[in-house]
Give the backbone structure.
Amino acid sequence: GGGAEARHCLSVADLKAGFPKLAALRLEEIAQRKDAGDDYVRARLLSQAAQAWLVAEEPAYAEAALDQALALVPDSPELYLTAAKVYGAQRRWQDVINAVNTAEEDGFVSAETFVLRGRARYEFGAYENAANDVVAALSLDPKFIDALVLRGDLAQAGMKIDVFLESAPR
């Protein structure tokens, strides 16, 4: 019947077809509809819009969508996973660290966000903390390429990351 759910399907199709800007715009539009759902559903739609904006390489629009989502449900830790991605795209390293910390406090983690925080810590020269994030990421996804790249960067900076990997809980 063309309701919010049908429009959501269209936005996912747009994204898969290589039209991330269109997908992001549709998702933002859906979030404004009365039949979209409660504030949590609307915030998730806006979070998805932010991620589509990132695919479109439009971090400023991504941040605007994220800000709208956080205004709806500022206490939703899962939004901070998206926030870490948005801030990472803008190289706002301290904001990345804060976002991942906030999400992690409530048990929301992903290999990608551990790597983002690790990259931020690497940029600040906090190699040991970055190594811990690499270990955390690889414990979730042992073949995650971004974690492996960061592990290589740390090795080139002189970190013996194998020590961290050997001491990681299994």
